[in-house]
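go over this chain:
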Amino acid sequence: MDLPPLIQDNIGEVLVKIIGFTDLRRSVLHGNIHNLHLPGYTPQDLPVLEFAEILNGAVSEHMRSQRLMFQDTVHIRFGPNGAVHIRPVIDEYAKTLLDSDPDEYLELQIDRLLENTLNRIVAEQLVRQNAEVTGSLPQANVNEVMTGDVFLDDSPSRPESMD
């Protein structure tokens, strides 16, 4: 792969954010499974489409201006040193399933966990390949590097609480 160093670094940064996102999403989806029998439990998910739109926008901006810029949204904030704060959202579809068909609800959560795991595996493999090309991430510490900069934001689900 013959990519200029700036592009390789940006690819790594995007992939690391994807891996952090999938780590958080796994935790949220596990919570949905573990808490399904709690009375009044409301399932949550991370804003997957919102995150994908942010990544698309960042890559598009990079293609235009050679800079990778992540834009804050209602549920996702980018902070200093690559930190990302993500606020889970109520999963209305899962809530409806939980109330009407708990078995189907469980299948939905398992399917989402499997999809999420596949996304993480692909992103990890791409990070490893990028590290081999650039030498920018030590092979032995890839997992440590990837998990430290994305956080769940436990604040209420109102946009004004993000300020």
DSSP finds five helices and five strands in the chain. Residues 5-151 form one domain.
